[in-house]
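Might I ask for a little of your time on a matter of protein folding? The record follows directly beneath this note:
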Amino acid sequence: MSKRKLPETIPTETEVVSQNTGLVSEEMLEAHAATSMLPETPPRRIQKGSPADEFLSCHAGNVSVSQSDALTCNLALVPKDQYNRRRRLIAVVIGVEQIKTKGNFTRRNVILRDACNECEVCVWGNHTHLLNESSIGRPVTLNRICLTEFLEKVAIHMPKDSSVNLGASPDTTAIMQWFNQSGHASTSVESALELTKSDIIAITGILGKVQCEIVTNKDGQTENITTLYIIAGPPRVLLTIEFTNAKQEKVDSYKVLLNFFAFIRMSTSLQFTGDAAPCSQGCKSAL
């Protein structure tokens, strides 16, 4: 218990009880409370559109992002007069570009995808290291972002108070379910070649070739490009898939599959004549 002594001008509880032996009415309590209230502090000057302004404008107990604040990768759905509104975007990272540096600033373009469309966002500073090659295929949440026009196209703008959350959360459950379902819906090489826009698909075909090369871009930075050649037929059709800076264990697994398919193709072309040894004549590479 506190040992502080009350000022002499403030009566103690014993004195109050001794001085008021009768019952106290509600009107007397309200009058006493009104006269004993501390003066209110002047309201703080809060900048319009700041995080504090948005928090105070929300109802108590309902500070989560509403459905109207949710943004999809189809940026064209947002009216131009609502570009400045802060929103949240939940998507899947399907591609990242190399980090570009100019002076003290670093940036990276990241390609996002959801069930509606595909879009691109430019991240800066520490976010360029958070969203790297290892983030491909993982869900990401962009908080407090808005839209702008850049080179006559609608683009995502990330103000200084925006944030990036990478990884699974209760809010990303729905998009990961869509991502997994779409990824398991396989299609043929012919159908994949007829697609006019990018999509999350699984392609059924034969791995015919794995090519690895080092490419130097305009900024002088190098990239490891791994190209997979997927074939089908007859008639023979070819689809190429490029991976940028793929992990070495992934590249090795592709090569293992390539050797396995090469063995299967060779086995199907073996010719036996009596007790003669197997002959692989006529076995030709798929490419």
